[in-house]
Amino acid sequence: MAAISETGPDTRSAIARLWSNKEARSVIIQIVTLTLIFAVLALLLRNVVINLERVGKEFSFGFFFTPAAYDITFSPFIEYSSRSTHLRAAVVGILNTLLVAVCGIILATIMGFTMGVLRLSSNWLVSRMVYCFLEFTRNIPVLLHILFIHGLVVTLLPVPKLAMNFNDSFFLSNRGFFFPQPVWESGSGVVAAALVLSIVFVYFFRRWAKKTQEETGRIYPVFLISIGAIVGLTGLAFLVMGMPLSWSVPALKGFNFQGGLAIRPEFIALWLALSYYTSCFIAEIVRAGIMAVSHGQTEAAHALGLRQNRTLQLIIIPQALRVIVPPLASQYLNITKNSSLAIAIGYMDVVATVGGITLMQTGKEMETMIVVLLTYLTFSLVISAFMNWYNKKMALVER
Do both 136 and 279 map to the same domain? Predict the structure, then answer.
């Protein structure tokens, strides 16, 4: 009994000391929190499985390997037909979502930076016009922009029979924009390898040229040498292999064009609407970032003889990026998630395929929604990780 009474206070004292340690207490709280979260998730999953069994449903993803039995009009990356599986339809939907997100981010960034700079223009008319466009666009729901652009594309463009013809190779109608498709033949792999090698060479050459400039001050024409290496090596491989390339030119057959590649009006409308809508928010971010840079930087650049455009390019924008990049990441996430509105105009993204037709055909609500949620979660995490990396790269380095 004496031994037990002596060890009791020592144990309580060790626990108390452990809890009073800030790092140990933080770890304990995190472990307990994660345990509770996983316990709640396990309980929810158990309830889902039980409720599905009660209504005669089984929680499984086997339906992905059954025929989809529906058409997807826009599949630029992989072949798809109504005989394909639901899994292939899901891949097409995910790729379509990724396509409109990437294209939208690129166009929105270009438009946003341009309008952000013009918003600060000394030309009163230009500044006021941009201001009115930004205010008008930002205060209207993005879905209305999508429907508006889609309506313009469908109603104003001519029918395929009267399509706009550009050199008998490019055609624009209310069914989409049709253009020749490259068809690679035997030997094209060598050309692709030459292109990859030239890009690798350019990467290491740029690093070497930058290091040489920092050490010796000698400047090499990096841009011209890079273009020459890529075009020269790839072009040489293309000629040596006998130009292994042909073109599939679209042609009007019946009520629509056959052959070539087609950009559907749904994609055009969604891409343009999301891009110019999001660019209005990016423009305000860019304007705020530029205004955050001290005006003394501009005056010092002008005193050194730099022109206004070079001052903006070399002095103002690099410093403003430290303010612009963090909120810019949020706009990239918004444009990715807003792409789910594509179902309103019939663009077959992951919501329309997996979360729409596949769900209705199979009745697998939980499984299809899990796939849709994980898709957007993955896209968002990748964008956030890239923007965080870029933000750290642009941050000031303390010495």
Answer: yes
> Are residues 298 and 233 located together in one domain of the fold?
no
**Total number of domains constituting the chain:** 3
Domain boundary residue, one of 248, 276, 295: 248
Q: Mean pLDDT throughout 211-227?
A: 84
Residues spanned by the domain of 212: 183-248
Q: What are the tens digits of pLDDT across the range 24-78?
A: 778 888 899 999 999 998 998 888 878 878 877 777 888 889 998 888 888 888 8
| DSSP label of 154 | H
Check if the beta carbon of residue 130 is closer than 8 Å to that of residue 119.
Answer: yes
For residue 300, is it within any domain?
yes
pLDDT at 144: 94
Task: Between 132 and 247, name the one with better pLDDT.
Answer: 132
End-to-end CA distance of the chain: 63
What is residue 174's DSSP assignment? T
Q: Provide the 3-class DSSP secondary structure of residue 221.
A: coil
* Distance from C-alpha of 369 to C-alpha of 375, rounded to nearest angstrom: 10
Pair 93, 152 in one domain:
yes
11 pLDDT above the threshold of 60: no
Q: Is the pLDDT of residue 4 over 60?
A: no
pLDDT tens for residues 263-321?
888 999 999 999 999 999 999 999 998 888 888 887 888 787 878 777 877 788 888 88
**pLDDT value for 174:** 87
With contact defined as beta carbons under 8 Å apart, do 174 and 158 qualify?
Answer: yes
Task: Please check whether residue 62 lies inside any domain of the structure.
Answer: no
The verdict on 163 and 113 lying in the same domain is: yes
pLDDT at residue 84 greater than cutoff 70: yes
Q: Which residues contact 158 (CB under 8 A, 6 or more apart)?
A: 164, 173, 174
- Verify that 215 and 174 share a domain, yes or no: no
Q: Which pTM was predicted? A: 0.80
Write out the H or E segment, with its range, that includes residue 87: helix 86-118
Say how far apart CA 13 and CA 24 lie, in whole Å. 15
Residue 210 lies in a domain: yes
Q: Does residue 260 lie within any of the structural domains?
A: no
Chain centroid to CA 394: how far?
A: 20
